[in-house]
């Protein structure tokens, strides 16, 4: 499976982007604010739809929408492999899309060991901490030790896609 076009569109919406004019610009992932390109890039410097800038990448002049989408599609590859490698039961396209969105956001290692994966792969699984798949999914709302309203909303959106195909 591959993430659908609807999935890509929703992921773009959930990730957000910072543009000046028609160009995506570098921003601080923590604050969501454009960074001063005359200073060293902070940890978490991001461009496009959640692309963490790696050593040697140069986006100082910004990027077009097409380049931002290409970067997203490349970055999604890791999340797609993670879902394919860890989900062992048949799932629908909307479920796959939602799982890719979750894996993209929480990371491959967190996804692989998550209670979400255990619930999906084993209908008889039960967790004392998260009594349902939905509660396990919606629990991924913390960043830097605190609950994030943005992550809470994101998890709700992903869950609507997973459970009800509500893009």
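Sequence proposed for the structure above (167 residues):
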């Amino acid at each position: 499976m591959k993430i659908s076009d609807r999935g890509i569109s929703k992921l773009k919406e959930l990730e957000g982007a910072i543009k000046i004019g028609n160009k995506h610009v570098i921003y601080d992932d923590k604050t969501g604010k454009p960074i001063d390109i005359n200073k060293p890039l902070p940890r978490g410097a991001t461009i496009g739809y959640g692309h963490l800038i790696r050593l040697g990448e140069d986006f100082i002049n910004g990027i077009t929408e097409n380049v931002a989408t290409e970067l997203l599609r490349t970055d999604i590859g890791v999340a797609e492999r993670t879902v394919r490698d860890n989900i062992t039961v048949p799932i629908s396209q909307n479920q796959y899309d939602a799982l890719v969105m979750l894996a993209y956001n929480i990371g491959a290692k967190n996804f692989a060991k998550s209670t979400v994966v255990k619930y999906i792969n084993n209908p008889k699984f039960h967790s004392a901490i998260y009594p349902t798949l939905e509660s396990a999914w919606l629990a991924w709302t913390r960043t830097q030790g605190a609950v994030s309203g943005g992550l809470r909303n994101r998890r709700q959106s992903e869950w609507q896609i997973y459970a009800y195909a509500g893009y």
